[in-house]
Amino acid sequence: MPYVKRDEQGRIIAVNLEPGNDLMELPSGSPELLEFMRRMGLEQSTLEQSDMRLVRVLEDLIDLLIARDVIRFTDLPLPAQEKLMERRSMRQTLGALDLLGGANETI
Prior knowledge:
This protein is mostly helical. The chain is built from 3 helices and 3 strands; from the N terminus they run βββααα.
């Protein structure tokens, strides 16, 4: 999670990856943070955004193959299993926070 520093008007003026004095934690997908990054020229490129959407497609494909018994989860290399479990956990956490749904489908 990134940590942000705000000015007197509450606008983000700095971002840090480590906690510190006068810094508050902010979700990495926060629209306010994304706007700050865009203004600073740090937004994701179109290719990176496409890569993230493709990652989600691949995760869903792996889940489908497992559900249809084409492969077993344990057939995957251990690092792949760990990464998939980490992403599933993150999506569940984000899904629990997004009660209206739909906002995290590209994550």
